[in-house]
């Protein structure tokens, strides 16, 4: 996960401008990555069992979205150089 975040932070080093669809997809991947990091912090500090369950369900949802976005990026040919 950390390596993906590092790749996403290097977007300002891209020489070629990605098209609008690619940029939107990269933005969504960054947003989901950030939300996963927030969810991880929440999980580490939560004490209430019901809220821990909510955190786990949210993490599952975010991971599914992340996998979907990565498969979309692969289909349209966004490589690690775009990150």
Task: Report what the structure shows.
- The protein is mostly helical.
- The chain has a domain at 21-76.
- 73% of the residues lie in helices and 0% in strands.
- The protein has helices at 2-8, 20-45, 49-76.
- The chain is elongated.
- It starts with a helix and ends in a 7-residue tail after the last helix.
CA radius of gyration is 15 Å
Let me know the average pLDDT: 84
Low-confidence stretches: none
Number of helices: 3
Main sheet record: none
Topology, number of strands: 0
Order of H and E elements: HHH
Structural class: mainly alpha
Q: Classify the helix fraction into a percent range.
A: over 70%
**Could you give the distance between the termini?**
14 Å
Morphology: elongated
Strand content: under 5%
Highlighted features:
mainly alpha; 83 residues; single chain; 73% helix
Summarize the structure.
This protein is 73% helix and 0% strand.
Topology, pairings included?
Layout: H1 2-8, H2 20-45, H3 49-76
Helix pairs in contact: 2-3
